[in-house]
Give the backbone structure.
Amino acid sequence: MPEYGQAWYKRLYDWLERRLQLEGPIKDAVLHPVPKSTASWWYVFGSASLVLLILQIVTGILLGLVYAPTAADAWTSLQVLNHQLPLGWFLRAMHGWGSNFMVAVVLIHMAQVFLFGAYKFPREFTWILGVFMLLMTLGMAFTGQVLRFDQDAYWGLGIGASIVGRIPLVGGQLVDLMLGGPIINGATLTRFFALHVFIIPGTLLAFTALHVWMVLKLGINEWPMPGRIVRRETYIRDYNHLAHTDGIPFVPGAVWKDLVFSAAVIFAVAFCAGMFGPFGPKGVPDPTIINTVPKPDFFFLWIYTILSFLPPDMETPFILIAPVVGVIILVALPLVAGVGEKSWWRRPVAVFSVMFIAICFGVFTQLGTTTPWSPYMNAWSGAPVPVQFLERRTPLERQGANVLQEKQCRNCHALGGLGGERGPALDSVATRLTEDQLIRQVLLGGGNMPAYGSALSPAETTALVRFLETLHPHYQPPASDASRQVVGQAGVPANSTVQRGGGQAAVH
Amino acid sequence: MDEKLPPPNPEEQEQRLEQERVTRRTFLMNVGIGLNALVVLALATPVVGYLLGPVLRRKNYRDWVTIGNASDFMPGETTLITYRNPFQEPWDGETANIPAYVRCSEDGKYTVFAINCAHLGCPVRWFSESQLFMCPCHGGIYYADGSRASGPPERGLFTYEMKVENGKLMIRAGQLPTLRNRASAAPCPSAGEPKAPAVVTRIESCPSTDRPGTSASTIG
């Protein structure tokens, strides 16, 4: 019976609640007691990941109102979003920065869960689902990069196809399946669109629901204390005891920190979006424009680096086996180490693993940003020989400097800090290699340098080596071949203390 | 002596009936599940076929494409050409324009190289002064004949199957060159080394130097 004394919204609420009957379960969920120690700033990353996921869905749907998922028009539709629709650029920027933040926050969440031992009994399956959610988040980042259908996306797909093509037996078929045809074209973009917009997000949402459900049912992991051992027989009883004797209701006791942090993260995304703008799109996805330097997005730069440093014969086994082993280790972790110590004070291997992985990630990303292994394609025409290397040189030596430029040596060799870094800098090469060694190195190559024997005339070689011979600091002489000197002095170096025939007499 | 069992009391009777009823209903439910399984199976066949379409159509992917007059390519030069991919959809846009390098050696033999680095498929650039192909991604370098010079690639550049017909240079194109079915391939043998054994030449890695115009393909 409606009570007419109540405000209209209360009556509306009652009317709905009598039919929905959701108040009970929701109250149970938000008021369930959690150990007081979990109301910590360390426990905010999971909820922030969820909030970022919601942000991505909202901004993604808004972009979907305009984006044209065809190879011919995708790039143009992004330009329209960037430049013609009011605040379209900001939405693209929010979605792009939201993606970066989501990967980062998910990784931090994972590291925190690992260090706090939260994956142990009874939360093993929460962790395993989380591993697949991480993979899906990375999958979203990669497929999103493809939908930004520019040059990087095009060649990034080529890299993906090259990796898939290395799988034994079915590699070729899998490449066709991945590209939706024989080559990167319209069919490729539409299937990556379906992956990015329907398949992966749908699965990710379902997994997220299960993940959060288990967090509610199994309780938030208590703050790990050294010596408080997880045992299958006693843990649940101990946890419930802790939650009820030293607990607080989740709302508002713990949730306020989640809310503050989530707001801060969303604000940070909006700030970056406003300050730095959207990502690309870079050049049009026209494969005939080959003057491009494809690079993956930030979170895949480390893979790009590893692919550069692996020896050729190790590469295929590594890139096919390492990811599988990595996923198996992550999935097996809670099954193998499901009980025992939770505290990081008693788990040095865990702590050092996280530090090691973080440092590797940082170093590889830094290297991927600077890419010292790539030739600088324009250095031969864009980076002049510094004047100090041309002063007081003979015409022949200066001609050698010309050869150095013309033959693209500078694409891999720096001079005066300019040029490629693939090979060693040549500023003081004369102190390291003698004339003969220089000639040999130039003509035959070796140590990852191509042989120039067929691309240089004898005259060019002579001029080039003469110039290289002058590249040494004034205080350090060029390397010289001692045996040549000996031959020139009829077998005895000029300043030798060894006197032929007289040595014996001097001893007596 | 009464060997008859006492008749079941009404409660027991009710229970037995209940069990029987449930069995009958369970049976009907199982029939329902079975029917749905059949429907799913019937639906799954076209769905799987649809999903595997890109693999099932593999044989149609490559076709002969004319890339120009053979006489347009000067001996001793390597030229960047582009062609329209033979296998395309109307909405492919610019992605259907594919570049390639045509090399005409001093003695008039043609080789057509794919643009894609054999390492990870990035577009290699030709430098005629140093007679090298350089890759911007991980620094793979190839000599003018396509053989590997340095860097991470484990083999030389991919070549197209090609032929000269009525003075026109034609290549068999349409498919993205990757290492395909083999997980590894030997680098091009240099002059002194023996050629790769016949088993692995299905995907020829090196430009053929002895038979002009009939170099075996790597693409496909």
